[in-house]
Amino acid sequence: MSESTEKLKLAEKLVGRGQVSRRQFVQLALAAGFTAAAAETMFVKAARAEPKKGGSAKFGLAHGATTDSLDPAGYPDTATQIPFAGAMSNNLTVVDAEGNIHPDLAESFEPGDDAATWIFKIRNGVTFHDGKSVTPEDVIASFQHHMGADSKSAAKSLLTDVKEIKADGKDKVVFVLGGANADFPYVASEYHIPIMPAKDGKADWQSGVRTGAYVFGEWEPGVRAHLTRNPNYHGTAWFDDVEFLTIADVTARTAALTAGQIHWISRADLKTLNLLKRDPNVNIDEVTGLGHYTFPMHVNAAPFDNVDVRTALKYAVNRQDVVDKVFLGHAAPGNDNPIAPGVKFAVDPEPKFTYDPEKAKFHLKKAGMENLKVDLSVADAAFNGAVDAAVLYQQHAKAAGIDINIIREPNDGYWDNVWLKKPWCASYWGGRPTCDWMFTTVYAKGAGWNETNWANPRFNELLVQGRAETDEKKRATIYAEMQQLVHDDCGALVLVFNNYVDASSKKLAHGKIAGNWEGDGFKIAERWWFA
Amino acid sequence: MSESAQTGQAIVPPARIGRRGRMSRVWRVLRKAPPTAWFGMIVIALYLVTAVFAPLLAPYPETELVGGAFEPWGGQFVLGTDQLGRDMLSRLIYGARNSVGIAFMTTMLSFILGSALGLTAAISRGWVDQVLSRAVDVLMSIPQLIFALVLLSIVGSSIFNLVIIIAVLDSTRVFRLSRSVAQGVVVMDYVEAARLRGEKLPWIMRREILPNIMAPLVAEFGLRFCFVFLTISALSFLGLGIQPPTADWGSMVRDNAALITYGDVTPLLPAGAIALLTVAMNFVVDWFLHKTSGLRE
Amino acid sequence: MNPVLRTVLQRLGLGIATLFVVSIIISLTIEMLPGDFARAILGQSATPETVAAFQREVGLDRHPALRYLDWIGGVVRGDFGESYASAGSLAGHRRLVADMIGPRLLNTLFLASAAALIAVPLSLFLGVLAALYRNSIFDRVVNIVSLTSISSPEFFLAYILIMFLAVKFPIFVSLASISPNMPFLDRLYVIALPTLTLVLVIVAQMMRMTRAAIINLLASPYIEMSRLKGAKPLQIIVRHALPNAWAPIVNVIALNLAYLVVGVVVVEVVFTYPGIGQLMVDAVSKRDLPVVQGCALVFAATYILLNLLADIVTIVSNPRLLHPR
């Protein structure tokens, strides 16, 4: 590295802190052999890199309803998740952009003698918005809010394995689990379980008093939420105040962004993304998420009870074509492994299920079911583009001699009447940050949401083993085998992994965007800043 | 609106049908039609031909993926392709069949239902009138779009259900109009005479009243026709209209509407198709009204 | 009795009966919808136990008829109940239906009045002019423009306005998000585009009815008479034709005003305007029955009152009805 480039590197750092002027920087860059235009761009980039405080940020969300509630038992979509779970609250732990788990309200966490007990130590001096210190009682009440017979929480099934939560001294909470679970700290990061103050032993969710980067302000359910910066936050928050607006119509959302009325929108319109890219004031932010779209087959219903039929159907769809046409390139083709590439221990099992009508025919022949005719129930309620994807699939499968009959189901009540009930339908998973969590929720024998009715003995045996194993290498082997099993034998046709495609004003800056949830892991208000 | 809101309507003498053949009479009338009416009739005829012969006219099938996504205009695909690679021109042509067909069927159904009940109410008076009018009041005071949305969620969003639900909800307006216009006619002496002669209700309706209230009904038809279009496209906007892959103009506007904010004119094509048809229809209606109003100028 | 007063009383009585029937129909249809509040909120993550807990808490485990009777009993006492969304809330955090509808209704009325204040005079003016200069170029242009505007879907008109007036030439804003403590002029500014959209949507029909009603009368003998007496065309229309044409015109105006309150949900969605239409669609999709009921009653009452008003105008404007034989 020459001297001039080294100086430039140093200057870049100093620009971020405002210690080098534009002129000085450009001179250094020219000396290092860059053109003047390139130097300008580099300066702007360097100046943006260092976060700074200030400004009112406005975010346009695709969701929101008048029935939204502050109660974390619900939080059905981003209109509650991003402002209330992400900006206003903290969990004991938090997942970063790389998929690693970190302590948040907890200062540290460690397993007991085995992974069946977990001890979380609460961060010293951390307070709620009203000034009260966070105590073990608050943590216990916050968890118990989702447990018990009367719980109506979406997180209830997540915590069924928690047998006991007890305080240990003034700053420690001990979780006793029914069995070992090496991934329990990930569970504690789930957005339904923010820490709330305890009032008479019950979690007080109604006051909106939490611990997060922003303090609850004005809120009109289904319209807007306005939060202001928490001056005593234990982390960092850059904006002075943040406003979240529900703008359900994607065209309206885009227009508001391009007209400069708001600074960030979720779920940009894929059809017109290329046109939006041309806007000089707009950035497109795209991350591959954990979420995936599936066509689950009931493995105990004919003809899907024959593994060769399942394999034939897996070969009969051109996933790349679906990615290109339905998701306009903004997705990654699946390989019938529900573990997203970004998750720890993820593998990509062989053979790859790419479009191959000949192989599909071969497997049909083996099953003795040439000229297979099957029904596929779909609605866009499962995921946006489900119907289009099914239409494409129908065309692809023709080449393999498979006749797919598409049954359009009503959007309303899709999850009640079609999903888990029809032998083959469309489904969506927001994804889970660990192998164990994903497998336990959807693929374990008897799991409430086992959408394929799959019950593989070897798989279920490995599931218990993997949960208790703390040796990373052994866990990797176990989870690799499990992913292979799902890929080969299960009825889940994992079509694609979705991308979160958001658009933001160039005035905003940010670090690496997390893909575990939408909006930078719901933490956009805390992690982003005005450049 | 009420029992007493019909006095503004003109009372038109019944059209007299001459001895000469109907055809030559029609021709004689048509020859005198103004250019706007001719324009309207030609446009409507073109739409009808397109709708009937759609499979012959369209270069590609309605729902088949024939090219890449978003192919540009010109060349193999005259108007390009949509996001799945279906030919836009073919979908526009098939759209004529689906959209015009569905909207026309719906409007016809709502007129048959609405005017039959409206005339019954006007002629029978008494409790029949009361029951029908109150039922219509109830239906009309429920927001139409939202009610249609709810009903479609219950029965499922098929074209058949869509036609029936919109026709029934829309027929309330036809009922009101035909009833209030007919009320002015039923008190006329010639109707009274027919009644005294002992003519049956359907006969009086068909021969004495209907010809005399045709003008406002036809005028309304043009407007209602385009409102049906709009209701269907609004339902598509809210997610429950005509479902893909069926090509219909309302949903085509909806699917491509976002392009307009970038200055792409593609969504103008189906919208323009709707607008042109409505304008044409109303030209013909205006001419018809002008003829029947007896205004000579 | 004075015929106006009699009509008013009679219609008010009928109106209340209508409201009652409407509430029954709405209850029945919402019950028939698949799913319920608990499942709509929990979505894919609903389990039988959590759904049951939810239903117990909001009282959905009771028979629909009982729930309806409870609700209607409350309404008679002026209590519209509370949203299911306040399930589990303590006092002070409960969400009363009246509190939810109130501000939304005010927003809707604000937008509706703005649109009506422009659209009604404009359409009367254009209608009279079109009748006066019928079959002229002016008549035809107004006719074609207005027909084109009504035959384009609302959201499409809205998008075109957004493109020109908010994105290309940023004169107005595309987000009509108004908040409770906004100054009046700011409110007017942010609702400019939705107002304009609504004006475009409703002017055509009122204008055409005005024109048709007037032209309809021009053939009648008394108009011929005044023409023979040498009255000027404008004078004939304004002095002689218009007073007798009021009935159909006012009826169409009433219909359009009702539409401004009841039917603008699409415009609300496009401009993210927090009106009552969106509230009702929200509540329907979440199966929040008390809120749906509340909205339906407001809509029905609006419709009934506007029609009553139209009837009164009809009677007052017509001496034969005002002084029946």
What tags apply to this protein structure?
heterotrimer, B: 297 residues, mainly alpha, C: 325 residues
Largest sheet of chain B: none
Radius of gyration of chain B: 22 Å
Relative strand content of chain A: 15-25%
**How many distinct helices of chain B?**
11
Describe this structure in words.
- The complex is a heterotrimer of chains A (about 525), B (about 300) and C (about 325).
- Chain A has helices at about 5-15, 20-30, 35-50, 80-85, 135-145, 185, 250-260, 275, 305-315, 320-325, 355-365, 385-400, 415, 435-445, 455-470, 470-490, 520, 525, and strands at about 55-60, 95, 100-105, 105-110, 115-120, 160-170, 170-175, 200, 200-205, 215-220, 225-230, 240-245, 265, 280-295, 330-335, 375-380, 405-410, 425-430, 490-505, 510, 530.
- Chain A is of the alpha+beta class.
- In chain A, the strands form six sheets. In chain A, strands 1, 10, 11, 12, 13, 14, 15, 18 and 19 form a nine-stranded mixed beta sheet that branches. Chain A has a four-stranded antiparallel beta sheet with strand order 4-5-7-6, with helices on one face. Chain A has a two-stranded antiparallel ribbon with strand order 2-3.
- In chain B, helix 10 packs across helix 11.
- The longest helix of chain B is centred in the middle third of the chain and has 37 residues, at about 90-125.
- Chain B is globular.
- In chain C, helix 5 packs across helix 9 (about 190-220) and helix 5 (about 95-130) packs parallel to helix 14 (about 290-315).
- Chain C is globular.
- Classes of the chains: A alpha+beta (about 525), B mainly alpha (about 300), C mainly alpha (about 325).
- At the B-C interface, helix 5, helix 6, helix 9, helix 10 and helix 11 of B face helix 1, helix 6, helix 7, helix 9 and helix 11 of C.
